[in-house]
Amino acid sequence: MSDVASPTLPPGEGCHGGRETMQAAARAAGKSAALDRMLADYPRGPHDQPQSMCPAFGALRVGLRMRRVATILSGSACCVYGLTFTSHFYGARRTVGYVPFNSETLVTGRLFEDIRDAVRDTARPEEHDAVVVINLCVPTASGVPLDRLPREIDGVRIIGIDVPGFGVPTHAEAKDVLAGAMLRAARQEAAAGPVARPRERRDGEPMVAPIGELFPADPPGIAALLRPMGLGLAPPLPAREWRDLYASLDCLAAAALHPFYTATVREFHAAGRPVIGSGPVGVEGSAAWLEAIGRAAGLPAARIGAATDQAVAATRAALALHPVQARVTVSGYEGSELLVARLLVEAGAEVPYVGTALPRTEWSEPDRAWLEARGAHVQYRASLEQDLAAMRETRPDLALGTTPLVQAAKELGIPALYFTNMVSARPLFGPAGAGALAGIVAAQTRQAGRFSRMVAFFDGVGAGEAAGYGSRGKPADPPGFRERQRKLRAMRAKADEAVGS
Ligand code: SF4
């Protein structure tokens, strides 16, 4: 039997036990430090948890997208089923490892030994640079100690992380849990001695390291903005290959383009690298960002000015091609919502509301201040209810948001776009971003007439009494149905009252 502490999850509890129960169990099982770290890195509030998919998906996706990295899940079968299904739906084309457990292996600590065996089997240096193990809710609450796994086996790094839904609010932040853990390991390796040469590193070229999952056209676009200053762009984080982590760490400055990568930023700071917030969006955003990068790099003002002038002219021209004359609400859980809103305002849109599922951090402060100065309400950790209320109150010409928000908007005849598939799947930064985003928003806001015709055409279909199937005409209540239901309700209320007394 292993010397691993026995789980303290109350019998019969599990994923549905509630956040407090799970947190208490995790603390009692020795995970207090890990939990405190998560709660500090990913603060909650104003309400506890935005509606989003299982947070662990973010970490799983980061692992699955990396070359020569194997990813193993440790958790309940239902969670693993959902996570593997979603990852293959998004084209993982990679095996997701799974170490199953039952009450006995969990209670006796055998699960930890099973994970260790699985890691040993998987850590083949000819195939992998690293093996990632992710503890889901139940193993985390039960104290399965992934920090006791060997740190490497035959040169293959072993990265064990806890990503419970009761500690990490969104799948976006779960990306940071793994990206930060990997960067930490790479930093420690680089500090200890020579490491592998990054694939695309040009000797002596000072680099800026972008943080955030970017649309593929964005890194070349940002690189073009930096080139006049004599700066290059390191591979973005989360990384696609282990050796890219060394290139990122070797930067002159890091750019927190997505502002919620707290653990990742901590590693850059530990490596002595400055971290710049916001991003090169629109005319003012690009100018401010290039100036901040240039200053961090210690470049002369003339060189910064030349690069800024070039970016400003190209972005202004791109925006002029697609003027937006519309009221737009923006909401999502990607972390780029504030940047998108800035770009829309510069394109001419009125943006009364920006909701993001992510927390307020210092790296989005310039964007928050800029937007609020232009009348936008910025809601961090926004819930679906807040996004819906803002959309209903402000009646935008276009709503950008999550799928339930888009559905609700369309039912009201308001044109709407799904943020993840339609906005995040386009460039955002520099002139390319200005052209792409303003272009699609301008096109969509011209659709309002079609939406009202659609709502009028389908008026009453599938709603209220007309819901359900199998009716040939308009469904009607059987005679006396409502009266009988009213009497039944009254009788039940009376019975409840009698029990109460
Ligand atoms: S791992 Fe936790 S948050 Fe994810 S599906 Fe399972 S119970 Fe839910």
From TrEMBL:
Pfam families tied to this protein: Oxidored_nitro
GO-annotated cellular components: membrane
Catalytic EC class: oxidoreductase
Domain of life: Bacteria
EC number, as in UniProt: 1.3.7.15
Listed InterPro entries: BchY, LIPOR_BchN/ChlN, Nase/OxRdtase_comp1, Protochlorophyllide_Rdtase
Chain intervals for the UniProt region annotation (Disordered): 468-501
Pathway the protein acts in: Porphyrin-containing compound metabolism; bacteriochlorophyll biosynthesis
Sorted UniProt keywords: Bacteriochlorophyll biosynthesis, Chlorophyll biosynthesis, Oxidoreductase, Photosynthesis
Domain Nitrogenase/oxidoreductase component: 54-439
Annotated GO MF terms: oxidoreductase activity, acting on iron-sulfur proteins as donors, NAD or NADP as acceptor
Classification via PANTHER family: LIGHT-INDEPENDENT PROTOCHLOROPHYLLIDE REDUCTASE SUBUNIT N (PTHR39429:SF3)
NCBIfam families: BchY (TIGR02015)
Protein name, UniProt field: Chlorophyllide a reductase subunit Y
Annotated source species: Roseicella frigidaeris
